[in-house]
Specification:
The chain is of the alpha/beta class. The protein folds into 2 domains: about 200 residues, FAD/NAD(P)-binding domain (3-Layer(bba) Sandwich); about 210 residues, no CATH class. It is built from 9 helices and 20 strands. The strands form 6 sheets. Strands 3-2-1-7-20 form a 5-stranded parallel β-sheet, with helices on one face. It has a 5-stranded parallel β-sheet with strand order 9-18-10-11-14.
Length: about 425
């Protein structure tokens, strides 16, 4: 342990870890960023080929960056965004160490210093630091329902993180489980490839990609939608999924369950259980369609209200076929049982989300459900901070749009601690 004590160690070199690293370096703080794989590993390793970000390039800014002069309203691929992160780290000479798998973070009760143990290219190492920022994100552990193990071994199963394109799947129809952003976008990708798609849905809101002449995210920013504080949000809002929308296409596009149905997808209720070749379904597909329609209508009413109050210039509402409500939910399938063999379904894609594997934190800072205990990213343990987690401080905390504000907030708290 002859290495000097660092001011900070940052775990994770995604957009959150690099953002706080930039601020630490600018202030002259001696720190290291430990990344389990490559810079932007999740973007490189857990996205399909046609994936696009859902926020425009002009909004995906880290500290020190300005709006790009080229294609500011375009939507980046995962590869291009990962390339941007690497270029950012190189441009500011950020102290990132790649291929460093953190295995334990402990704190000495007498010195109050943290010991960070990790493997760098299979060699075990450790560093000491006055503070630690956990910026490893919430996508390190795939979430798949336990009953998936009861499904026939003849059915190929993939998580969204492992899906790349339709060609990797066996011939036949595909069951996509989950209708949040990844689910509907992968369903679209499969439909484009000519596959028959069955989609198990849940309650997810949706928004039109464009409304009254502008991208919907631009409107939502003006409405203050993303800066709703966690302390002021109810549990239902916090637990709700990110609304469906897509960045695919020249200006992105609207995605709705009824638009997928028009292209041939079978819209099912939520998966209840599975055994062998049989999937049982809840009778709520219609409710999910109506929920999405109601959410879109609510958002448009909110935007209309802003335009009227502020007397903002805006185009009249445009016709968007994908946004037209299915008032009677006629596209909902009545199926309560799905026979995989009968419908020639040979593969399942689980778009059921991710969790954060923070088992390396050997400290009493976790809830029973595995989520970190903190107040606006600040742990009860002095010097331990979290960054880049959903609803860390506000609605935008879990997306790239919110990283700049959160990083600057956490950095200020770190400065106060280290002073």
């Amino acid at each position: 342990m002859n290495d000097p004590v660092l001011d900070a160690v940052v775990v994770g070199a995604g957009h959150s870890g690099l953002a706080i690293s930039y601020l630490l370096k600018k202030s002259g703080r001696n720190h290291h960023v430990l990344e389990r794989g490559r810079i932007g590993e999740s973007w490189l390793n857990q996205r399909w080929d046609t994936f696009k970000l859902n926020t425009a390039n002009k909004l995906n800014l880290l500290p020190g960056e300005t709006v790009p002069s080229t294609d500011p309203d375009g939507f980046s691929t995962a590869q291009k965004f990962a390339d941007k992160l690497r270029a950012y780290a190189d441009a500011f000479s950020l102290p990132v160490q790649e291929n460093c798998l953190v295995t334990a973070i402990e704190r000495d009760p007498s010195s109050h210093l943290f010991t960070i143990r990790y493997f760098e290219n299979k060699e075990e190492k450790k560093r000491r630091s006055k503070s630690v920022v956990i910026a490893s994100g919430g996508q390190s552990e795939k979430k798949i329902p336990p009953f998936s193990r009861f499904i026939s071994p003849d059915i190929f199963q993939y998580h969204a993180a492992d899906y790349r394109n339709a060609a990797q799947l066996p011939d036949g129809a595909v069951l996509v489980v989950g209708s949040a952003q990844s689910g509907v976008q992968i369903a679209e990708d499969l439909l484009e490839a000519g596959r028959k798609v069955f989609l198990c849905t849940s309650n997810v809101g949706r928004v039109p990609r464009r409304y009254r002449g502008k991208d919907v995210v631009d409107w939502l920013i003006e409405c203050g939608f993303y800066v709703l504080k966690t302390s002021e949000a109810d549990l239902q809002t916090i637990q709700s999924k990110v609304p469906q929308v897509s960045g695919v296409g020249p200006q992105g596009r609207t995605v709705s369950l009824q638009s997928l149905a028009k292209r041939g997808a079978v819209i099912l209720g939520k998966m209840d259980h599975a055994h062998g070749d049989t999937i049982t379904l809840q009778p709520n597909a219609a409710a999910h369609i109506l929920f999405g329609d109601q959410f879109s209508a609510k958002v448009k009413t909110m935007i209309d209200g802003l335009i009227e109050r502020m007397q903002l210039p805006a185009a009249p509402p445009e016709t968007d076929e994908s946004d037209l409500p299915d008032e009677s939910a006629t596209c909902a399938s009545p199926l309560s049982v799905l026979d995989l063999k009968q419908h020639l379904i040979n593969s399942i894609i689980w778009t059921t989300g991710f969790g954060a594997d923070l088992s390396y934190l050997k400290l009493p800072v976790m809830h029973a459900g595995g989520t970190p205990i903190h107040q606006e990213g600040i742990s009860d343990i002095g010097g331990l901070f979290f960054l880049g987690f959903p609803w860390l401080r506000m609605r935008q905390s879990g997306i790239i749009l919110g990283v700049k504000d959160d990083a600057e907030f956490i950095f200020q708290r770190m400065e106060e601690f280290l002073s």
